[in-house]
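Because discrete structure vocabularies remain unfamiliar, we turn briefly to a single example record, giving the amino acid sequence and backbone structure tokens:
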Amino acid sequence: METINDMIKNNREMFENDQLPEGHKDRFLKKVARKRLASKREFFYKVAAAFLIFAAVTLPWVLNDTQSGSYLATLERESSALYIMAEKLDPLNREMVISTLDQLTSEAVPFADQLPDNLDRKTTIRKNREYYGPKIDGVGRLRGYVSELLEN
């Protein structure tokens, strides 16, 4: 290794001033162009892989949110959390919160059973959103009220 370094040091002028072989510059530029193309291709593959991973992770989440039963599941999850919070309140406020929560969540006949079977998926999702949306909003407001009571 030292002999190569010594040779380069001793003959630097020859390396810098000597004419390049015929076509060397063209071959070098083609090689650089191939490397650029390869790096662009590699970048494209990385972006495509990141997009596929993102889609694989988010697609099930998005589809679950648009399913008709997800609104009912959200309502049940929020109301069960609110029942747990209400247990920490004094008896008068606890009864009031539980009564209000029961009025918001109780259904004699589940809404999904009330919908006709011939509705398309979009209409069913829209109807569920229209029905359960205000209920979920009401439970959220009630949860805020209970949080205020617990802070005081």
User: Anything to note?
Assistant: Residues 24-66 form the longest helix (43 residues). The mean pLDDT is 84. The chain has two domains: 2-56, 68-151. Helices lie at 2-10, 12-17, 24-66, 68-86, 91-105, 111-114, 121-151.
